[in-house]
Amino acid sequence: MSNSRRTAIGVDFASIQMFHYAFQRQAMLPSKKLRNLLLLPLLTPLLALLGGCNMVLLSPSGDVALQQRNLIIISTILMLVIIIPVIFLTLLFAWRYRASNKEAAYSPEWHHSTVLELLIWAAPLLIIIALGAVTWVSTHKLDPYRPLDRIAEGREVPAESKPLVVEVVALDWKWLFLYPEQGIATVNELAAPVDRPIQFKITASTVMNSFFIPALAGQIYAMPGMQTTMHAVINQPGVYEGFSANYSGAGFSGMHFKFHGMSDGDFEKWVQQAKAGASADKADAAGTLTRAAYLQLEQPSENNPVRHYAAVAPGLYDAILNRCVQAGSICMKDMMAADAGRAALPPGVATPALAMAMPVCTAGNSASTAAARRELPL
Asked: Over the stretch 125-153, which tens digit does the pLDDT of each residue have?
């Protein structure tokens, strides 16, 4: 057999081997349809999880949260005005000026275009001006300390409408809500009438926390010895999630509560039920949140159930805020008033000690002590 014939046979044999290997390789790979079917079981749980998402921030039930949602959308659209053209032009230039496109203009000496420079700098500048204007207006309009001037779009707050005051205390690791007008208190449960302005007065017992009801309004911090304020309104009846949005220790993950948006009639029923059910919850022998009961409630505990108190000790929230719940302790506001008075005296003038100059405020003499202190020289 000649060398040329042996070479041809060898080439044919090699071609057959390569074809056989390629056929086996293709046979081992699943078809496109089969691959899609194999991926379907993996995608189904993911789609199911996404389908259960509640995008409450983009679909709120309170007017303040709705305005904040609109601010998010406006800011996003303004940013997309730059992002989308940049991405599109990046892909367009990469395709048009690819190496294989011989028809594209080739200008290696090009370095400047006044029109292009104006477009590049004018667009971001206009967006910054627009964002600045929106931020300025919304920062003042949505200030949580600012009383509401409307309960919904096109609906102003009625002149005779009185806001519902709720005093909020962040404890370890639970939420205490005091209703001074209704004379009740609850733990890990909050309720308010629909379309009635709400004024939250917020503080904390130990560490900094964050009060957040996404469907109602933005979050606001709760700090010991300080009071923050938030005005809001709920426009739709329902049960909404509230929680702590700031890590505060071991029981932080259990600081959840339910916020009930109700009609006026249902809210009154809820208040009466809270008063009637206080004794059953074993809050206190008389169903009253006394100072002693508060000091016991203040102790760290996790995953606390809902609890109702039929009555609240007078001045309890003010004592919590000024850190003088315990009998015999001096309130912060009195200490600061005494310090301010001493600082105003001329140099060299002796001042009496705080404990001697000012009587100690207790649960039994709070009213008389407050009146007497106003007459004391500082």
From this structure: 999 999 999 999 999 999 999 999 999 99
Does 100 have pLDDT greater than 70? Answer: yes
Residue 233: which residues within 8 A CB-CB, separation 6 or more?
Answer: 62, 63, 64, 148, 151, 152, 195, 196, 197, 198
Which DSSP symbol is given to 299? S
- 38-75 exposure pattern, b = at least 16 Cβ within 10 A, e = fewer: eeeeeeeeeeeeeeeeeebeeebbbbbbbbbbebeeeb
Tokens of 169: 């205390």
- Residue ranges of alpha helices (H) inside 298-352 are 316-321, 332-343
Q: Lowest mean pLDDT: which of 83-92, 105-114, 173-182, 215-224?
A: 105-114
Phi, psi of 98 (to 5 degrees): -65, 160
Tell how far CA 126 is from the center of its chain. Answer: 30
Average pLDDT in the 223-240 region?
Answer: 96
Six-digit token pair at 278? 């206080």
Residues 6+ away with beta carbon under 8 Å from 85? none
Of 349, 316, 348, 322, which Cα lies nearest the Cα of 337?
A: 322
Query: What would the pLDDT profile of 237-268 be if each residue is shown by its tens digit?
Result: 999 999 999 999 899 999 999 999 999 999 99
Nearest to 170 by CA among 216, 215, 214, 227: 227
Which residue, 338, 317, 322, 331, is CA-closest to 361?
A: 331
**Please, are residues 312 and 178 in contact by the beta-carbon 8 Å criterion?**
yes
Give bridge partners of residue 222 from the DSSP assignment.
209
Residue 157: partners with Cβ closer than 8 Å, 6 or more residues away: 148, 149, 150, 151, 197
40 band by pLDDT with thresholds 50, 70 and 90: low
- pTM value is 0.73
Quick check: 337 and 322 in contact, CB under 8 A? no
For helices 114-141 and 63-96, the axis angle rounded to 10 degrees is 170
How many residues are recorded in the chain? 378
With 70 as the cut, is the pLDDT of residue 101 above it?
A: yes
| CA separation for the pair 66, 246 (Å, rounded) | 23
Output the six-digit token pair for 337: 């008033």
